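Private note to self, pasted from the team thread so I don't lose it. Backbone tokens:
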């Protein structure tokens, strides 16, 4: 009886992944990314995760292979979906795309800036075709909308 109750109340586990240079938010290109730093984004996400009753883990890395490792690990540790801002790797990383394809978990891609309004090399995302969807251009709000969308797309 007790065990059944515990499993019923088990929270869905999600992973938030921040790619390269996002650790510099708040200091980096403020005209594009604003004054909000990564800790502020993570705190807002934690608050929302609590409201949505999901268990959330957050990682940031400047290293492509490390992001690939986090994605692979998620498939093995019970994670139900990934919210990712791959940052510059959005436009270059076949490795991150392949990792997403390999794990078969829902992935939502987010960007602070509207990448389609910026330089042409940012218009192409290698990740979008393997993601459930993409949200771009709303600053911190992109992450919050993305987390809501991810939780919606996770099957119970
Ligand atoms: C970004 C957009 C990318 O083109 C860029 O390389 C970033 C941040 C964004 O959140 O707007 O580092 O992913």
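Design output:
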């Amino acid at each position: 009886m007790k065990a059944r109750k515990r499993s019923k109340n088990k929270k869905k586990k999600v992973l938030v992944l921040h790619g390269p240079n996002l650790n510099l938010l708040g200091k980096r290109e403020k005209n594009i990314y604003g004054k909000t730093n990564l800790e502020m984004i993570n705190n807002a996400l934690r608050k929302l995760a609590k409201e949505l009753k999901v268990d959330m883990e957050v990682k940031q890395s400047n290293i492509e292979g490390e992001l690939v490792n986090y994605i692979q690990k998620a498939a093995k540790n019970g994670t139900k979906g990934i919210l990712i801002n791959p940052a510059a790797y959005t436009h270059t990383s076949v490795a991150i795309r392949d990792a997403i394809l390999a794990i078969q978990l829902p992935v939502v891609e987010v960007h602070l800036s509207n990448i389609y309004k910026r330089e042409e090399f940012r218009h192409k995302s290698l990740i979008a075709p393997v993601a459930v969807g993409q949200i771009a251009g709303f600053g911190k709000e992109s992450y919050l909308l993305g987390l809501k969308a991810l939780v919606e797309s996770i099957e119970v």
